[in-house]
């Protein structure tokens, strides 16, 4: 059976973009693949953070993943810092990662441009992400559009490793949805919806209540031409709402345009809000029922399984790279 691996940073503010771009696929892929999902707390340390908040965010992120349908009976769900193989393999891959490639990473450039201190961890972030994926020998990686460049680095490092040490790692592919791979900000629809945007109005948090969701969508920035039409260049706000509605209802963008083309933005936005509320309400209800202690138990059990599996694979990596086993 082919293996899936993906990760999410426990940085709070999980939003509709995370869900439609990535997590929904995480849930669907459980039916046909061997799935491993990881809360990547070591990645979250690459920007300024508060240790007490990290523990809260870790549990909260796991709770959201369980509420939206990640099923611990079918998927391994654990925390990156529980399994030392991630950092060990990152070191090994780091010795093969060209500085030039890492210097070109959009995420690194964006984060340092918007105020993050440029530290070695942030710079080598894509190497740790490659290690996450290759540690478990995954074939497919469900992510949003913004992670494509990191998947390319992972593929490159897998090939470099295999060329030097033998055919150990599958060269993984990204798995990016056709619609909503890049959900845009509601206040600035030419930028992606982001956890770190200062303004909560820019996003729909997964646990927002229906009133807030409707308010956010009603006040989403659009344009002054009243036609509902898909054109991300000239109508980024409306196009974003069309994609969101399409993903939430399963209707094609074209048929939504046919239905709402001339109905006016007010009516259209209310329909988008209805669709998003219908999609998110059951997640919030399940989230409210979950207990933090039970979530900790799930992560602890997932961590044990992940460590056992990773340790076995790391033995082979150590052997081929000439690292001592005693
Ligand atoms: P992060 O919040 O950066 O840990 O991202 C978790 C997952 O959500 C990754 O697979 C991202 O590619 C995806 N993601 C983040 N923001 C968006 C967005 N605005 N639209 C679609 N996918 C996103
Ligand atoms: N870099 C990813 C993000 O910001 C999170 C991540 C870390 C990840 N390791 C991963 C995603 C491995 C997929 C596979 O969204």
Ordered list of secondary-structure elements with their pairings:
Layout: E1 3-8, H1 16-29, E2 34-39, H2 41-44, H3 51-67, E3 75-79, H4 85-94, H5 99-103, H6 106-113, H7 120-123, H8 125-135, E4 140-142, H9 148-165, E5 173-175, H10 210-218, H11 236-249, H12 253-260, H13 265-289, H14 292-321
Parallel strand pairs: 1-2, 2-3, 4-5
Helix pairs in contact: 3-13, 3-14, 4-8, 8-9, 10-13, 11-13
Bound molecules: adenosine monophosphate and tryptophan.
Overall description:
There is one protein chain. Helices cover 54% and strands 7% of the residues. It has 326 residues and is mainly alpha-helical. 43% of the residues are buried. The chain binds adenosine monophosphate and tryptophan.
The largest β sheet comes out as:
3 strands, parallel
Strand fraction equals 5-15%
**Total number of β-strand segments?**
5
**DSSP helix count?**
14
Molecular shape: globular
Overall mean pLDDT: 96
- Counting helices, strands and paired strands, the structural category is mainly alpha
Low-confidence runs: none
Bound molecules: adenosine monophosphate, tryptophan
The proportion of residues forming helix, as a percent range, comes to 40-55%
Span between N and C termini?
33 Å
Biggest sheet: strand arrangement: 1-2-3
Compressed to H and E, one letter per element, the order equals: EHEHHEHHHHHEHEHHHHH
Radius of gyration: 21 Å
Write a compact overview of the structure shown:
With 326 residues, this protein is mainly α.
List keywords for this structure.
mainly alpha, 326 residues, 7% strand, 3-stranded parallel β-sheet, single chain, 54% helix, binds tryptophan, 5 strands, 14 helices, two-stranded parallel ribbon, binds adenosine monophosphate
């Amino acid at each position: 059976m082919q293996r899936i691996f993906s990760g999410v940073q426990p940085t709070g503010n999980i939003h509709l973009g995370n869900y439609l771009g990535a997590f929904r696929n995480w849930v669907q892929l459980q039916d046909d693949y061997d799935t491993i999902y990881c809360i990547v707390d070591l990645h979250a340390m690459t920007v300024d953070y508060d240790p007490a908040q990290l523990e809260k965010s870790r549990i909260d992120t796991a709770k959201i993943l369980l509420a939206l349908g990640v099923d611990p009976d079918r998927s391994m769900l654990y925390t990156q810092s529980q399994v030392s193989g991630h950092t060990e393999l990152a070191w090994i891959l780091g010795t093969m990662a060209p500085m030039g490639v890492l210097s070109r990473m959009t995420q690194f450039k964006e984060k340092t441009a918007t105020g993050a201190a440029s530290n070695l961890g942030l710079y080598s972030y894509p190497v740790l992400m490659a290690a996450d994926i290759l540690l478990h020998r995954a074939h497919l990686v469900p992510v949003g559009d913004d992670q494509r460049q990191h998947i390319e680095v992972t593929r490159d490092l897998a090939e470099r490793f295999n060329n030097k040490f033998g055919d150990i790692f599958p060269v993984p592919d990204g798995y990016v949805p056709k619609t909503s791979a890049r959900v845009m900000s509601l206040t600035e629809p030419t930028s992606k919806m982001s956890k770190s945007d200062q303004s909560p109005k820019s996003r729909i948090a997964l646990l927002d209540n229906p009133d807030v969701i409707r308010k956010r969508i009603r006040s989403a920035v659009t344009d002054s031409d009243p036609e509902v039409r898909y054109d991300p260049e000239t109508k980024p706000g409306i196009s974003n709402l069309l994609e969101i509605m399409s993903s939430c209802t399963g209707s094609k963008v074209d048929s939504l345009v046919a239905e709402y083309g001339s109905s006016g933005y007010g009516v259209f936005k209310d329909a988008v809000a209805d669709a998003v509320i219908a999609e998110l309400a059951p997640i919030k209800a399940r989230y409210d029922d979950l207990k933090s202690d039970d979530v900790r138990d799930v992560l602890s059990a997932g961590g044990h399984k992940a460590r056992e599996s990773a340790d076995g694979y790391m033995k082979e990596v150590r052997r081929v790279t000439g690292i001592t086993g005693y």
